[in-house]
Amino acid sequence: MMRPEMTDAGLSVAKVVIGIDETGAERSINLVGERAMTIYVDKQEIVTLMTIGSHPELLTLGYLKNQGFFEQINEIKAVQVDWETESVAVVTVGKQSDFSKQMERRTVTTGCGQGTVFGRLMEKLQKIRVPENHVRQSTLYALLDSVRLHNEVYKMAGAVHGCALYTADQLEIFVEDVGRHNAVDAIAGHMWLNGVSGDNKIFYTTGRLTSEMVIKVSQMGIPVLLSRSGATQMGLEMAQLSGVTLISRSKGKHFMVLNGAQNIEFDQ
């Protein structure tokens, strides 16, 4: 598999500043850095994302894949991030310059960071059915315990969402960003770049289980979606349509299975 040429332009995600607490005393605190990043494909402006910039190349790849711009990684020749111009230049193999079909129909969705889904993704979801994957309750507990060890930016500065990809209780990748959509796109980029299948995977997010989140996970072929937050009605409907096991309110020993309870082995 041909991999695109890529920069390695990840940024430091937190900055120390001085604040005044409730007693009037100075305190050093960490604030999450946030940068605008405009994606250009063959010099055509596609979108501007707000991101902490920890995985800009993976975020770019995942965004383009999840929004339906490309299907195969070998369609992309290079991904070059330049923070001086706050831009990322994507060069395609075939110099595809007309993305009018992808840009003409968009639905604005709820969520922080960027949250647009191109209309045709809804049509694509009709054809997606994720593979079944049976998960033990004890595995979910081990995963939730593991997540606590990786929320590094959140522990330092807050103001971010985290997403993780697991195989059983083994962590594949963990990403934090200002928007959960950015974090999930970065993981999608990792999977696409490295040929990682969604089979037998569990996706964890700190964010809400919205329709867009379920659509993206369905596209990635991941059968189980787990969140510490709640779900929307349309998020549940999308999970029922694609067969995603949807688990909300996952914290400590508590969780709520909204779809796919037959895929959970309650062993504890």
TrEMBL record:
Belongs to the FdhD family. The lineage of its organism: Bacteria, Pseudomonadati, Pseudomonadota, Gammaproteobacteria, Methylococcales. Keywords: Cytoplasm, Molybdenum cofactor biosynthesis. It is found in: Cytoplasm. The active site is at 112 (cysteine persulfide intermediate). Its main location: cytoplasm. InterPro entries: Cytidine_deaminase-like (IPR016193), FdhD (IPR003786). The gene is fdhD. GO terms for cellular component: cytoplasm. One of its GO terms (biological process) is Mo-molybdopterin cofactor biosynthetic process. It comes from the Bacteria. Required for formate dehydrogenase (FDH) activity. Acts as a sulfur carrier protein that transfers sulfur from IscS to the molybdenum cofactor prior to its insertion into FDH. This is Sulfur carrier protein FdhD. SUPFAM superfamilies: Cytidine deaminase-like. Transmembrane segments: none annotated. The keyword Cytoplasm applies. The keyword Methyltransferase does not apply. GO terms for molecular function: sulfur carrier activity; sulfurtransferase activity.
